[in-house]
Amino acid sequence: MLFDAHSSILIPPECQFIIDLSSKYRNKGVWSKTDLKQLAHDISNVWRFEMWRIPFDVLERTLMECEGEVSYSDLCKRVYMVYNSLYPKAELKLLGDKNPGYSIYSKQLMKLFPEAKFIFITRDYRDNFVSIMDVKFDLPLPSLVAWKWVYYYNRVKKEALRNPKNYFFVRYEDLAANPLATLPPLCDFLGIQFEQGMLDFYEKREEFTRMYRPAILKNIHSNIVNEVNTSRVAVWKTRLTEKQVKILDYVVGEVAEEAGYERIFKTHSFMTKIAALPGVLVASLIIGATKVIDLFPAKVRENLLSKGPKAVAFFVLSIVNPKKLKEIKQKIESNKLG
What we know:
Layout: E1 9-10, H1 17-20, H2 22-25, E2 30-31, H3 33-44, H4 56-64, E3 68-69, H5 72-82, E4 94-95, H6 106-112, E5 118-122, H7 125-135, H8 142-162, E6 167-171, H9 172-177, H10 179-190, H11 205-211, H12 214-219, H13 236-239, H14 242-252, H15 255-258, H16 270-293, H17 298-320, H18 322-337
Parallel strand pairs: 1-4, 5-6
Antiparallel strand pairs: 2-3
């Protein structure tokens, strides 16, 4: 939201169509009208693309104008250009994309967009777990969330070592505490001038409330209507139990300090290690399955990724911790009734 408020940057809401459709279209170089019509149809059906508020006829007409020799990456850029930001633009210099899931696809994205630059925001893994519990993106297992946190961090770090000039690491806590000190270096990295208006993104509050469904705005994007603040920093200290913190500290290990966070517990009991096993197993199975699913056709891949992780997690829990699975299902049912 900070960067979309910049007069030279355009960043639509989260939608991973670039990677979701990459396996189907990335090697295509010559496009017929039929091809472009199918691409428009596929993009419009990707999860969350409706948040871009682009009428299908506009999307289809834009792509149909590109008949002939053109790359998939250039067609993706054309789609981004159709998005109508809530913020006024002057000279558009950059197209942006904010998708946490892209953390493990930066290598593929670099092949599609060699000039791309990546800003990777790390957040305290304990606060990250609290956030996961609140928005219900994942099963609320500390070891599962911590294992994925480490996996994503290490994947991005590996790619950053290969292309250091294309990556910038920033801590969420630093951005929240002092955006005036944090944003200018980020703008320098992108080759643009910092604008004070970036910090006024929240002034579009009324427009946002019309753009997002109330449930999504309340449960997932509640902070986009507020100015930058530290209200979500260190919430784990009052929200998590000692047992949860022990498991999180154990699974993240020394990567915590490497990323700039201090663990409370650095030695761990046998019981903590045993308690962490189910989540670690689920997370490793999900990541392994994702690598295989990435080879599948786009439509099959999208269906599996939207439903598969939950199915795998429930299956593993039914074996290793049926009591926990029962608690989770009861909580989900309770939330539905509420």
